[in-house]
Structure formats: structure tokens, C-alpha cells
Amino acid sequence: MPFSYLDLRLRSDAIDGSLVVHISDAAHDLTIEPVERLIDPGLTDQQAAALANLLAARFTVSADGRALTPQWSPVKVLAGRQSLKLPFRLALDGRPGRLTVSADMFPYDPRHQTFLNIYEGDELTQAILDRGRRAFEYFTGTRQGSFAAVQKFLPAGIHHILIGPDHVLFLIGLLLLGGTIGRLALIVTAFTVAHSITLSLAALDLVTPPARIIEPAIALSIIFVGADNLLVKSSAGARDVRAWIAFAFGFIHGFGFANVLREMDLPARSLGWSLFAFNLGVEVGQLLVVAVVATALAALRSRNEAAGRQLAFAGSVVVMAAGAFWFIQRVFFSGGMS
Fold first, then answer.
1. Do residues 202 and 259 lie in contact, with contact meaning Cβ atoms separated by under 8 Å?
2. Apex CA 313: angle with CA 309 and CA 315, to 5°?
3. Domain range for residue 30?
4. Between 63 and 257, where is the model more confident?
5. What is the pTM of this model?
6. Considering 140, 175, 194, which residue would you say is the last residue of a domain?
7. How far is CA 211 from CA 3, 223, 279, in A?
8. How many Cα neighbours within 13 Å face the side chain of 100?
9. What is the strand order of the sheet 59-63 is part of?
């Protein structure tokens, strides 16, 4: 069968590992025929160094970004499984926060899979590495592991909000009419509270609406905020309900954030820290957008009030047009996906 097994056991000063490979795979790459010859312990001992060198180049275990060098032990023949077991040890300088395991054990077989088992205390974490997924990140259940999760997911949250034109445009639409610092803070807080709730629910797989519904709904939220701006400007004494709009549509945007977060393989051992860090990153990126846009709009209005009103009107039209474009694109041309 086209399988290999990579086991890693975390100790305080080292990782004890083993790699189990089928004799047909090993024999193929060592050009040994017939393959059953590898069950002979004598031949296996002769080929041990060649096999270790071959496989060492095809998998990597890194601790906090530093590649570890395996120290191989004698090969063991598992005759009943028609397999060979290669034990090894990886020395550590200290308890790592993050392990990165990559493997492409037998490239000649496109179906080949490596089953990865990581043991830490009584906890077992499993993954499958193949052509579609060659690397796996593991965050240890230590303070270092929590810090490593924050280091990864905080920048990811900032990056996502800054490269997400739909989320940014929704925020800009909410800011176009301006307002006091307190009013703008209330709008942003309402949006934050709402999307934090649905982000967590979706990332934990408690509520998972399909992207084909969420992505068009995000586009509709952008159309709505632009239209509300125009209605407020045309209606004297109209109430400012932007905070309620931000809160209501924040639930939908939270599901959009979660779709991205799930694709990043949330670590089970540091799930809480990963969610917190990603959400915090989203908020940091969001505040950067708000600070830049609100400051620019306030500066323009202080110099020319009429120009500020014209910009709010034109900006609202642009927001609506962009939302309409994304809605049509996501419903009719990309199966609801952005």
C-alpha cells in the first residue's frame, strides 16, 4: 500500500521519532529486486545507510524555524507488515513552540501518503501529508507554543483585513459621513463585537454557513451601507444608524473571516490563542484603516465642508457600485466564492 508512517514523540530535550516504510517503496528507490529481499536482515543492514540518506532528504522536522538533524538508529525489519522501521532522534536546545513537519517520501508514486503522529504527553495529533499537503505545523502545548501561535495568527489577521477589499470598503462606507470620535468608535466597536462572535462560532465548526451564501451577502452589506449614506444625506434629521448597520452585518463578515481562518489549519492544541490572535490582528488592521480614512476625511472637511459632502456622496456611489459588481460576480460567475 502507498503509505509511510512518521511518528514523533516530544521529550523535554529531544524528539524520539520513527519512520516506517513499505519494502516495495524502499526497494523501488534502492533498485532492489525482488522486493522481498529487503526482509532479509543481512541485506537490510547493508542498505541501512543508503536508505537513511535517501529518506533524510525527503522529510524535514523544524523547531521554531530551525531544521533538526536526525540521528539514526539501526533499521528494524517488520516482516509481518512487509515494512522497515527506521528509528531516529532529534536533539532539541529547549522546548520549542512550533514544529513544522514536511514530507514527500516517495515522489515516484503520486498516490503516496505519509501518516504523521505527534505525541506530546498523553495527547496525540494526527495529519496526512501527500502531494496536496506537504507540510504540517504543530504548536506545542506550552507557553512557547501559545506564543508561537500568536506570532503566526496575529500578522495573518492584519494581512487578511488589509488585502480584503470588500471588508475594507464596508468600513470606508461606514466612515464616509464622518462624525465625532465617540460615534466612530461606537461604529467600529459594534462591527468588532458582531464579527468576533461569528468568527469564533464558525472557526469552531459550531455554525458553518456555506461560502456561496456568505460571500454574496457581504457584497449586499456593502450596497446597503452605500445606499444608507445617500438616504441619510437626502433626509434632514435622519437618525444615524451606522452602529446598528455595522453590528448587523458584522455577523456576516465574521463568517467571511472564518472561511479564511479555517483554510489555515487551526492548531488544536492552541485553538484559543489562535482565534484570539487572528481576531486581534483583524482589529489592528481595521483600526489602521479607520485611522487613515477618518483622519483624511476630517482634514478635508475642516478645509472645505462642501468638498467633504461631495466626497461622501461620490464615495457612497462607488461603494454601492463595487458591492453590486461583487454580488453579480459571486452569484453568477464564481459559484458564490470571492
1. yes
2. 110
3. 3-140
4. 63
5. 0.70
6. 140
7. 33, 18, 19
8. 12
9. 66-67, 59-63, 98-103, 135-139
